[in-house]
Specification:
This protein has about 130 residues and is mainly alpha-helical. The chain has 2 domains: about 1-60, no CATH class; about 70-125, Orthogonal Bundle (Arc Repressor Mutant, subunit A), CATH 1.10.10. It has helices spanning about 1-5, 10-25, 35-60, 65-70, 80-85, 90-95, 115-125; strands spanning about 75, 105, 110-115. The N and C termini lie far apart (about 70 Å).
């Protein structure tokens, strides 16, 4: 496979390396025929490609965002309405707001509760 890559540098060498890489991806058993220099060059290119692909994979997709996953919220309840619907005290609701899936913080001091979310949550909690 040494003749595939050649010792010259330039665009033909890059093209040859791409061709060689494509051949090795198709038939990995041919890796035994690659010279030590070709192997080093291919590994360097693969490392760069791997880093670029890991960067792409580490970015969250649009579907991952919590806002995108939420269905229509419907009516938003204040703490009194939500506590009455849940059958709990206002204090309990405020204390547990961070762990409840239907809590929607509006600002640092204002919290609302999704009526649809509460009803779904209650349906999963009660036998």
């Amino acid at each position: 496979m040494a003749e595939t890559c050649g010792a010259d540098s330039g665009s033909s060498s890059v093209t040859d390396r791409a061709t060689l890489l494509a051949a090795l991806l198709t038939e990995p058993s041919r890796a035994a025929q690659v010279t030590r220099e070709e192997a080093g060059a291919l590994l360097a290119k693969l490392g760069t490609l791997q880093a670029a692909l890991l960067t792409v994979m580490s970015r969250p997709s649009v579907a991952v965002h919590r806002e995108a996953e939420r269905p229509s919220e419907g009516r938003m309840l204040d703490v009194d309405e939500a506590a009455a619907l849940l059958g709990v005290s206002r204090r309990w609701l405020y204390r547990h707001s961070k762990t409840l899936p239907f809590t929607r913080p509006i600002s640092r001091k204002i919290v609302r509760y999704s009526e649809t979310g509460i009803r779904k949550w209650l349906a999963t909690r009660r036998p």
